[in-house]
Amino acid sequence: MTDRFRSGAGRLCLDFVRTLRYRGTPAAVEELPDAAAWGAWIDAFGPFPSPVRPASADDARVAREAIHALLTGSVRAPERQRLNRFAALPVPSPSLTPSGELRWQAADPAAAMLALLARDALELVTSPEFARVRHCAGERCGALFLDTSRPGTRRWCSMETCGNQAKKSTYRAKATARG
């Protein structure tokens, strides 16, 4: 997997929502500006054996924002209708190769990926797991993640990035206060 896109949010739809990096901050970065970027995301996270080359990233960004609205409790009728439309698209189908490998295929891999993402989001918000979706406590992050820690008290999307930055900031503030 490439470092271009973040992973590890706990669900595919949560990793997808992170493609608007630093959401809600002045430093927000669009990671799906075009069809090539959307194809690269599918290649990194999707089930397809060969590279996917979608014609556009427009539907991907629309789906991402509808999923974000759903996950943050601000979904309105238009977003709900879009999610239902994406979820109704055909999903990838499995097949077994002559060598015994499982391969996934779809007539339109980009649309099939949107179906997987929408279905994952709908399943998440209707499951008990949804109570453990958190916003990262990192000041500049804005990411959502699934808290799978036993006590359910995880604060950062990534201890290596946001958690480490927060601890460094706290340490520096204490050092400055001491002297």
UniProtKB/TrEMBL annotation:
Transmembrane feature ranges: none
A Pfam family assignment: zf-CGNR
Start and end residues of each Zinc finger CGNR domain: 132-174
InterPro entries: ABATE, ABATE_dom_sf, Znf_CGNR
The organism of origin for this protein: Amycolatopsis iheyensis
Entry-linked Gene3D superfamilies: Jann2411-like domain
Domain of life: Bacteria
Protein name, per record: CGNR zinc finger domain-containing protein
